[in-house]
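quick one before i forget lol
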Amino acid sequence: MVARKFVVLHQDSTFPVDYDTEDGLEVLRFQIFSLTLVPPDEQKIVTEGDDRLVSDETDLASISDKLRLVSIGISGKTDKSDSEMVKSDEELARMLQAEEEAMMFQQYVAAQDSTEFERRIRPYVSQVLMYEDPVRQEAARKTVPKDELEEKALVSLAMEGNSGPRKEEQDYAFLLQLLFWFKRSFRWVNEPPCDGCGNKTIPQGMGNPLTSELAFGANRVELYRCTFCSRITRFPRYNDPLKLVETKRGRCGEWANCFTLYCRSFGYDSRWILDFTDHVWTECFSHSLGRWIHLDPCEGVHDKPMLYEKGWNKKLNYVIAISKDGVCDVTKRYTKKWHEVLSRRSLTTESSLEAVLRTLTRERRSSLMPQVLSALELRDRNEQQELERNLHSPDDASVSLPGRQSGDKEWRVLRSEFGSDENCSVSSSSCPVRICVDHHVTNIYDSFLPLLTQFVEDDIPVARAIEVLEMIKRVLVDLKNAPYKTRKARVTLDSDSSSLSPEQFLPTLGGLLLALSLKSARDAADKSVTICLDGEPTKTALALPVALDALRELVTDLSKCQNLNKDSLSFPLLKQNRVCSGSVLASGEELPSGIATAAFDGIQESKWEEPNGAKGCWIVYKALNKQMHQLVAYELMSANDAPERDPKDWVLEGSSDGGSSWSVLDKQTCQVFEERFQRKSYKITSPGSQANLFRFRFLAVRDVNSTSRLQLGSIDLYRSLH
């Protein structure tokens, strides 16, 4: 550990930074962000005098104490130092030279005849037309819980701070939810279970297809013998997506075939992607992003085109997009090694390949109206420009892509698609600053005070109090299960004086209803109360899971109490004055479901996951509008699985000067979470001065020898009112 005092030069200003080199470069970037408002992922830092780029490999203990912010990414534009520009130019020149040599070599090894290439493509041009069949589309739509996916799409946008999305943004969010739903609904088949007893089967070769199987394009039928009852089970490889909507099983061919139908059924411009090295997936055009998006239903991965070359270590050659509107070579979207790919493209020459694709595309577009044709041709030109830019743009080294996850392990290893880490998933070591959309969480926690106060004042026994909470929970469950646009639940007002009437507690539930964007109204006969929406449905959809989790926890906590009194109305039973609506930066995160803000969303099932955090990582919380807070307590909750990833040792620090210096607020060692979703509460014994930056430095996880990861279900910070 070396303490340094840096001076950072930016534009016409200088910023002093006190820094501990043990914290790593990302913490330094965040400190600079706090002072300059330049986001960490847009910073280029060099040492003053020799313009040496400061990177993760730089020895921060020995470099100059004068640093300069020389490159700022704004709207995609980046200023570079001379040394960086020379390096970039040299790399580009080498790449172009290698591509030219590969192209020349291809002229000698590639077949001049394009017949074989066309033979492999043309059958699929007819197959994708099945996606345009109204009968198939309607059959697909009927199986989709459309309202549920719409709700999840809107909630996902709201959690990013987008509470009033444009239609294009809603459409893209729905597409991603459709992908995630399909991943959960469709089943991968290694060997099918026995049709008779459900036990394991082993391959027995191929069989002759039945007429009923041929009717849905199953020209190949695999046979499997049960290891228990010896029964033969047939596995027809259906090519008709109509049948796949029914069976919901298969391998990558069936997955991509069926998912592309689902995409077309909901109106997305979709393409079936054929990878000549034996894989298939889908692309859809996003009007929100203005480009084609990679979607792999087998892996549940979206917009990660480098998945195959970088994650699976695939040696790509041809990646062809096929749709009702034509055929396109999109290989350049999926590679950063075009000169190597060129050396493997030997089926035909590039000029012959382009001629075949032009012919097939003209055939598909021959009957289109001129204005439609013109729009498609413009989109084609824009895509070609994008592909060329992508080819020579630097790869994002901070993103870690997994090996193949679908399929049996031995099969994946045999295909050399296993990757380097069996448990690897999409993750990033260069996280953006994320905004916490969690004001509703704080409001929900605060709303329980009036209800608990009434329990104490009315001397309600603990068992009766739990009954009331369970009744409230049942009402919220009914609301959650109702259609999100028209949520409504009815509560009967029990007149039996021997029981606790809901009417007795309705006045104290006003804060909870307000936090959930709900309202109550009595019926004309005054015998029931209707709970319904009072505002945007998305606000209620966002808040209901939080309230249900909070109620479950409150019931658990109350069940441990012998009685309720005024002393009970304190932390941790009451979780008042929770800090909210700040921004978060972490040392790393899992994409898309384990991002840093997941630790602050109030939902048990979500979590922040740091892929490389087992031996040390950090997460920094910046208060809204730089408001100063005096922390008096905090809580951590274990995540849903993998106890070995629970934090064991950590330090909580606060800063009031933008991260230049830090004060220790609390330190814990040898902490053990005995259960999943277990919340541990900690009071800060010496709160000290106020701060607007709070940093957790997690030093070790529960079992550092069995995992590289750290994960947390939730982090809650509580402030003093004084």
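fyi The domain at 578-719 is CATH 2.60.120.260 (Jelly Rolls).
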